[in-house]
Amino acid sequence: MTKQLSVPHLLGIKGMTQEDLELIFETADQFKEVINRPIKKVPSLRDITIVNLFFENSTRTKLSFELAEKRLSADIINFAASSSSVQKGETLIDTVNNILAMKVDMVVMRHPDVGAAKFLSRHVNATIVNAGDGTHEHPTQAILDAYSIREKLGKVKDVKVLIVGDILHSRVALSNIYALNLLGAKVKVCGPPSLIPKNIKSLGVGVEYNLEKALQWADVANILRVQNERMDVKYFPSGREYAQLYGVNMHLLDKIGKEIVIMHPGPINRGVEITSEVADSKKAIILDQVENGVATRMAVLYLLAEQIKPN
Asked: Which of 119, 123, 129, 200 registers the highest number of CB atoms within 10 A of its CB?
């Protein structure tokens, strides 16, 4: 019997197992070979129809999912909420049920509300993939980040991973913490006290407010942008002050005198949380993350689709 995921939907890393993540990684290894071949397509999802349902702006995630779906030969429907009946007051369930009436098998959804993907999974008959729900989770980003660490360092277990920046508003941070803990990494967060959630230690992570000390500890630094669009009050005096205290620059990396792998989920605010010199250096695996995003999302879609295909 072929291995399969323990979950019928990908709603978040919370609720998944270490075996689930390892199965996704093993499957992604195979798909990584596919996307580096001259013919980059396989017919794995030829009979599956997927709708990309994005209620929030997205470039990287949306393109990555679309490319993953095309590489698997799925039929794709792209739905932009800004040009839909949602603007006329249609509910989420009505929107999705109208789409499902067209015989769609899988919904990849990004939504500004926490729990939207979970809510949908309970009310519609389709496989749901959470592409980000508010400030809650972004599971496929955490999967590709952990996969990229594994690819670069040969393992995730016992690797010291520092997550720097706006932890409070970041769904990437939360999903990364869940995934890295499952895989046995050691995790610390670093940022201004106003951007570190008060209960963060209950998730089994350390907290350090001094960036230099935090980098001295780390093997990997995953640098998050400041999410100004989610802030209704000021959490720090200015972008300039943030860059001085929590921006990662080459002078700081040279000063600590050890090799650190630099990651960033994008989009990058160059000159704020990271300088161009660091982002474009050999220390950074940011473009590897982008490539791995396609392979890992292919793996997720393929493994979920295996559960819905008729025997």
From this structure: 129
Which tokens hold the place of 182?
A: 């499952």
Nearest to 48 by CA among 77, 7, 80, 10: 77
Mean pLDDT, residues 79-97: 68
As given in the structure block, the two tokens for residue 193 are 């006290």
Residue reference for tokens 């990684």: 25
pLDDT band (50, 70, 90) for residue 241: confident
Q: What is the pLDDT of residue 227?
A: 59
Say which CATH number the domain at 160 has: 3.40.50.1370
The per-residue pLDDT for 214 is: 98
Asked whether residue 209 falls in the same domain as residue 301, the answer is no
* pLDDT tens digits, 52-61: 999 888 889 9
* Contact (CB, 8 A) for 24 and 150: no
- For the record, the structure tokens of 170 come out as 């970041």
**Within the chain, where are the H helices?**
18-35, 60-71, 92-100, 116-123, 139-153, 171-182, 211-217, 239-246, 250-256, 276-279, 286-308
- Asked, for residue 10, whether it belongs to a domain, the answer is no
Is residue 9 domain-resident?
no
Q: Supply the pLDDT for residue 229.
A: 42
Express each pLDDT in 112-147 by its tens digit. Answer: 999 999 998 998 889 999 999 988 999 999 999 999
Q: Which domain holds residue 266?
A: 139-285
Please tell me the distance from the alpha carbon of residue 72 to that of residue 96, in angstroms, as a whole number: 23
The string over 148-163, giving b where at least 16 C-beta atoms fall within 10 Å of a residue's C-beta and e elsewhere, is: bbbbbeeebeebbbbb
pLDDT of residue 233: 40
